[in-house]
Write a structure and sequence with these properties.
heterodimer; A: about 325 residues; mainly alpha; 2 domains; 13 helices; globular; B: about 325 residues; 15 helices; OppC_N (chain B); transmembrane helix (chain B); transmembrane (chain B)
């Protein structure tokens, strides 16, 4: 296990290095003058000079990248101030270290992702199991059709719709907002409930479809048939053999989904105006805040790569045949 | 595919394509969803004809020209978003444009972008997937690692972050970005991260096909690699390609719409399906009806495409069970 984690972590670091390099070079090398892009359409020469100095773009791009990467481990000094150890650069819209802002926004994104994931995993798996258990019945068909239609919904349609019908017209939910969990757990829950449900609706549908399909596939497996033939009860066969076998694809997709959600659920955060990483990324794009975007991109990529490793480690827990070496 | 070729009851020789078509025709859900999909493409293609027959265009601000259509706050006077015999889908708040023609032209824009991305992504997947699978060795290793790398990119973030960058490739950031540059940039970013799934599938399929007897036979008889790829491999990967493409296209439509919703996609005055949701999200408190038609149209479109994809898959491979 240890060797596996070590090997995969090395691979992950390589991938992250490449991603950071690609992103960095695309951000800073392709635009004819990145400072101009960062400075926006109403840029005076004075502002431009400040931005250029802060970006350090008088040096060649590989040197800039090297300084950026060194800065992550040792910290870095900018004309506007010192940026402590894991330094992802300075944001030039509010002159704060990028990492500080990311850490500020992180709790919102984590709350949204974890809460949403609990809802879609529990509801999705339950509905999928129900549909597979009662395969071919009316219940199965209605669950499958519902998941098809709900899965084809888009958050940017469902979100405003839910806001209008459930918050604005009927006050079933309170206006979505983010309250830190540590300050007021009830307000935290109430403010995020609707975003969780909307976010989860789309995912739930996918999980229902997938868990139903893999369960049905598993129920046809030889070892499941043998267990049935031995006279084991239907529920034992279902849960101990078929369900466990169906977990591998579910865990795979769940890891991917959770990893990308931790990098910011952009559309959900935008729709409900929640100050998370996704919202931060969108704002940084409209303000052309390259260092901030670079930081969010690196963070999100780290999450995706990290969850990929976790998923592979989970395989060993689920399937005793898998040996990690 | 060749092993699937069953002998029909009356012992008529049929190509796999014909068999697929016969199976597809018998699938009622597939035919209906296929018709819905065709309807959307027809709407997109015939948008100018529709707006000519209907007598409106997507740019005229009817609500601002004709008094009595919008109230003092800029919302339609008539209930339900101003739907009546003249404006079938209602009026856009503030701008006062006709929603039906906006939607029809928006569908046209979105479908054009999605179609272009689908074609580009499929071609890329064919070239790289088949190269990796057929050559094996170093080429396979490089292409597979490349796919892994692209898969690790946070894709929504990538789209949002790189759209402006791609646009600056074509124009100076101080100048106004022309519409065609925006369209090309959207196509490029979606394309870059859109081909990997199909690429992996095609690589796997080619890898398996390479060892088959008919490919060996072609090799032994002296066929060039190009001929083997064209005559032996490509016809056998048509089915995963078609199936994957039908799943890809609605994805590109919704992703491009999401970009417009987030405010980084197409801008006024180009009619766009996704931007209608951005406007809808601004006005939902006073005028929820505005979002109704674009929203329902998109759900119908995506459902129809997914059902069509399932039917195409079943028609190609009747052994898969659902």
């Amino acid at each position: 296990m240890l060797r596996f984690l070590l090997r995969r972590s090395l691979g992950a670091i390589v991938i992250l290095l490449i991603i950071s390099a690609v992103t960095f070079f695309l951000f800073y090398a392709i635009p004819r003058n990145p400072a101009l892009l960062a400075c926006g359409k109403t840029c005076t020469p004075d502002q431009l000079a400040i931005v250029e100095a802060n970006l350090g773009i008088d040096k060649p791009v590989p040197v800039q990248y090297w300084e950026y990467m060194v800065g992550i481990f040792t910290g870095r000094d900018y004309p506007i101030g010192h940026c402590p150890a894991p330094c992802l650069g300075y944001s030039f819209t509010d002159n704060r270290p990028v990492l500080e802002t990311i850490l500020d926004r992180l709790p919102t994104t984590l709350s949204l992702a974890v809460g949403g994931a609990v809802v879609f995993l529990v509801v999705g798996l339950a509905m999928g199991m129900l549909a597979a258990w009662r395969r071919g019945t009316l219940l199965d068909k209605s669950l499958s059709s519902a998941s098809l239609v709900l899965g084809s919904m888009q958050i940017y349609f469902l979100g405003p719709l839910a806001l209008a019908l459930l918050v604005h017209n009927n006050q079933v939910f309170s206006q979505p907002k983010y309250e830190p969990f540590t300050e007021d757990p009830t307000a935290w829950f109430g403010g995020l409930l609707l975003p969780w449900l909307v976010l989860a609706t789309i995912f739930t549908a996918n999980y229902t479809r997938m868990s139903r399909a893999t369960l049905i596939e598993q129920l046809r497996e030889d070892h499941v048939r043998t267990a049935k033939a031995k006279g084991m009860s239907r529920s034992t066969v279902f849960f101990r053999y078929a369900w466990r076998g169906s977990l591998i694809p579910i865990v795979t997709i769940f890891g991917i989904d959770l990893g990308s959600l931790f990098g910011g659920a952009m559309i959900t955060e935008f729709t409900f105006n929640l100050p998370g990483l996704g919202r931060l990324a969108v704002d940084s794009v409209t303000k052309s805040n390259l260092p901030m975007l670079m930081g969010v991109m690196l963070f999100a990529a780290t999450m995706i790569v990290l969850f990929n490793i976790l998923v592979d480690a989970c395989y060993a827990l689920i399937d005793p045949r898998v040996r990690l070496a | 595919m060749s092993s699937d070729t069953q002998v029909a009851a009356e012992l008529v020789g049929r190509s796999p394509g014909q068999l697929m078509w016969r199976r597809f025709r018998r699938d009622r859900v597939g035919v209906v969803s296929g018709c819905v999909v065709l309807f959307f493409f027809a709407v997109g293609l015939l948008a100018p004809v529709i707006s000519w027959l209907y007598g409106k265009d997507p740019q005229t601000r009817y609500g601002q020209i004709e008094p009595g259509l919008l109230n003092e706050f800029g919302y339609p006077v008539k209930p339900n978003g101003g739907i009546d015999g003249e404006f079938w889908f209602g009026l856009e708040p503030f701008m006062g444009r006709d929603v039906l023609t906006q939607l029809v032209y928006g569908i046209r824009t979105s479908l054009f972008i999605a179609l272009a991305v689908t074609v580009l992504a499929t071609l890329t997947a064919i070239v790289l997937g088949i190269t990796a699978g057929y050559l094996g060795g170093k080429a396979d290793f490089l292409i597979s690692r490349f796919i892994d790398l692209l898969m690790a990119f946070p894709n929504q973030l990538f789209f949002v972050a790189f759209l402006p960058i791609v646009a600056t490739l074509f124009v100076d950031p101080r100048e106004e970005t022309p519409t065609y540059v925006r369209v090309v940039s959207i196509i490029v970013v979606l394309w870059v991260l859109g081909w990997m799934t199909l690429g992996r599938i095609l690589r796997g399929a080619t890898l398996a096909l390479r060892e088959r007897e008919f490919v060996e036979a072609a090799k032994v008889s002296g066929a060039s690699p190009w001929r083997i790829i064209r005559k032996e491999l490509l016809p056998n990967v048509v089915s995963p390609m078609l199936v994957q493409a039908t799943y890809m296209l609605p994805n590109f439509v919704t992703t491009a719409a999401a970009l417009s919703f987030l405010g980084v996609g197409l801008v006024e005055p180009t009619p766009d399906w996704g931007r209608m949701f951005a406007i809808g999200a601004e006005v939902y408190r006073a005028d929820l009806t505005y979002m109704f038609f674009p929203g329902v149209a998109m759900v119908v479109f995506v459902v129809a495409f997914n059902l069509l994809g399932d039917s195409v898959r079943d028609a190609f491979d009747p052994k898969t069970n659902r």
